[in-house]
Design goal:
Elements (H helix, E strand, L loop, with lengths): L1 H4 L4 H15 L3 H18 L1 H12 L3 H27 L2 E3 L8 E9 L2 E5 L7 H12 L3 E5 L5 H14 L5 E3 L4 H7 L6 E5 L2 H14 L2 E5 L5 E4 L5 H13 L11 E5 L3 H16 L15 H16 L3 E4 L3 E2 L4 E2 L2 E4 L6 H4 L6 E7 L3 H8 L6 E5 L3 H9 L5 E4 L20 E2 L4 H7 L1 E9 L14 H13 L1
Helix pairs in contact: 3-4, 3-5, 4-5, 4-7, 5-6, 6-16, 10-11
The structure holds nicotinamide-adenine-dinucleotide.
């Protein structure tokens, strides 16, 4: 207890705890009002500030900010607005005949005081997206955004303090230590988005208080292309998915598994599409982001250096500029299995390609690694698609495209095992921040009333009948 009281965030935590029933007992209309305020902030009042913040953080193009940061949160709000009334309704369920005289239902009650820890790569989207679900479910929320995108964190802090009282939503900027202190508090739920390594730290901290967790993690997401695919379209979409946000996307295609006979055509198409999208001087293109900081820039350029040294074929790109953390879209063939490119989550604009001849090879390769967050297939063959789907496991996927599964709020979003625990978006986000409370109501004298002690022969007969028939 003493340890908790000396925690710098204990005061706010306690005020939120005291406020939890007031927030939890709000009607759907009151919750929607809170979400509407966030909608107006993102759509109108702070839109330009958000764009400028992300440009300052890693030169993210305005259009990409609109599409990948603001739009997904607005659609999350829109979806909640259309559905919250029905999500909040108690769910009636059947009651077995043996419990005659009672009715049963499930109440979606708010978990209580929740913590959201978010990453830097889509800071607005991955902070306010879960916040929409948490508010929709009637919780109070404490937020720690990433220290790596300080401009985005600053504008989010401004928005939160303009829209919410500290005892309903509070945001804390700062370094990792802020996260560490917050994680010591006995939250009712933690929603973490970030790397599997830090996910383990979060889960360990949560276990001290048996706090439930949603872990939205990462890993290497494979992309398979077989020789029935429309290769031009596949290359175009992969370039979009891989180089949006300069590859710093959890569900970006991490590497490609390509049917061997497509190698030359793939390379030619890749080069021409890069030129078409970003001109032949990508560094001057307004449509291409930078790497978030020097640490990640050096990590990624070390992968390229390693590829140069170990004889991998860098068939396109490979240049970089430390002055503003630019790395050219880079295509690499034949990276050895023990290289960083094939072992680490790349999280940057480098695309390694491995070739295969039979479809069993990509299946075996994918299954030799941790379960991916997303798995993509480009193919016109239903048989091949089914084969891949039936012999692999992944958090999500898309056939003949990528990333788009994130934008459909009817789909649960999240990983499996190493790529995550629990789901978000739409109803699934609401559910993550809710406890399904099981309720039974006795209306009249029930069958079970006949079974109270003392246990007589007659009651034994009743039990015998129950065991046999109900
Ligand atoms: P990260 O795990 O380094 O950091 C995420 C958050 O955790 C940050 O707010 C950071 O301050 C905090 N943190 C870092 N170290 C901590 C520690 N020791 N103790 C407590 N908190 C700590 O991740 P990142 O670099 O911000 O983001 C990249 C990773 O996130 C990638 O692995 C990517 O795949 C994953 N990601 C997943 C999703 C998803 O929806 N599944 C979305 C975006 C990013």
């Amino acid at each position: 207890m003493e340890e908790l009281q000396s925690n710098p965030f204990y005061g706010v935590f306690n005020r939120q705890k005291a406020n939890q029933f007031k927030k939890g007992n709000t009607t759907y209309k009151e919750r929607l009002k809170k979400l509407d305020a966030l909608k107006t902030a993102l759509e109108v009042d702070y839109k330009q500030q958000i764009r400028e913040a992300l440009y300052a953080d890693f030169k993210k193009p305005f259009l990409e900010t609109d599409l990948t940061e603001i739009y997904p949160v607005l659609t999350e709000i829109k979806f909640a607005k259309s559905n919250l009334k029905s999500w909040m309704k108690d769910q009636k369920v059947d009651t077995p005949l043996a419990l005659l005289g009672a009715s049963s239902y499930i109440v979606f009650e708010p978990k209580g005081v929740c913590l959201i820890i978010s990453p830097w790569n889509f800071p607005i989207n991955l902070t306010f997206g879960p916040l929409v679900s948490a508010i929709a479910a009637g919780n109070t929320v404490m937020i720690k955004p990433s220290e790596m995108t300080p401009n985005a964190s600053k504008v989010m802090a401004e928005i939160v303090s303009a829209l919410y009282e500290e005892d309903e939503v509070a945001l804390f900027e700062g370094e990792v230590e802020v996260s560490e202190d917050l994680l010591k508090l006995p939250f009712n739920h933690i929603f973490f988005t970030g790397s599997p390594q830090v996910g383990k730290i979060v889960m360990k901290a949560a276990s001290k208080h048996l706090t439930s967790v949603t872990l939205e993690l990462g890993g290497k997401s494979p992309t398979i292309i077989d020789d029935s695919a429309n290769l031009e379209k596949a290359v175009e979409k992969i370039i979009f998915g891989k180089f949006t946000n300069a590859g710093q996307t959890c569900i970006a295609p991490d590497y490609v598994l390509l049917q061997a006979n497509l190698k030359e055509k793939f390379t030619t198409l890749f080069k021409s599409k890069i030129k078409e999208f970003y001109t032949d001087q990508v560094e001057l293109s307004d449509s291409y982001s930078r790497i978030v900081n020097k640490k990640h820039f050096e990590r990624l350029t070390s992968y390229i250096d390693e590829a140069k040294q170990n004889g991998s074929a860098i068939v396109s790109g490979g240049t970089s500029n430390v002055s503003d953390h630019f790395i050219e879209p880079t295509l690499v063939f034949d990276a050895p299995e023990n290289s960083k490119l094939m072992q680490d989550e790349i999280f940057g604009p480098i695309l390694p390609v491995k070739t295969f001849t039979t479809l069993q090879e990509p299946v075996d390769y994918i299954n030799s690694k941790e379960k991916p967050l997303a798995l993509y297939i480009y193919s016109k063959s239903d048989k091949n698609i089914d084969f891949i789907m039936n012999h692999t496991r992944a958090g999500s996927g898309c056939i003949n495209h990528n990333l788009l599964q994130f934008l459909n709020h009817n789909l649960p979003f999240g990983g499996s095992n190493n790529s995550g625990l629990g789901k978000s978006h739409g109803f699934f986000g609401f559910e993550a921040f809710s406890n399904r409370r099981s309720m039974m109501k006795q209306h009249t004298m029930g069958a079970t009333d006949l079974l109270m002690p003392p246990y007589t022969n007659f009651k034994q007969k009743l039990i015998d009948l129950t065991l046999k028939w109900f």
